[in-house]
Specification:
Order of helices and strands: HHHEEH
Strand content: under 5%
């Protein structure tokens, strides 16, 4: 039996929003979530990957090395998903 681990798309989107905005607060607003709900998505993602993705600094969150790796994956994964879904929107 193969153990399958997946990363929910909404967790990747939350991660990308925090990175793009440089703020948990702004990312939550853009996602239509409370800051707490968005932080929980990031926490669940970090728990699933067993690593820290952001260093929380006064100037805003900064990616760790693991976060940088996930950023590459997240961009590719979300682009693949968008490309796939376009086939059904015609």
């Amino acid at each position: 039996l193969i153990k399958f681990m997946s990363i929910p798309t909404d967790h990747l989107q939350a991660f990308m929003l925090v990175h793009e905005t440089g703020s948990f607060t702004e990312a939550a607003q853009r996602a239509g979530l409370t800051q707490s709900a968005l932080s929980q998505k990031i926490k669940r993602l970090e728990d699933r990957l067993e690593t820290t993705l952001f260093v929380r600094r006064p100037s805003g969150p900064a990616l760790t090395a693991a976060g940088e790796s996930l950023l590459v994956f997240a961009r590719q994964q979300l682009a693949f998903e968008q490309e796939f879904l376009q086939h059904f929107e015609q």
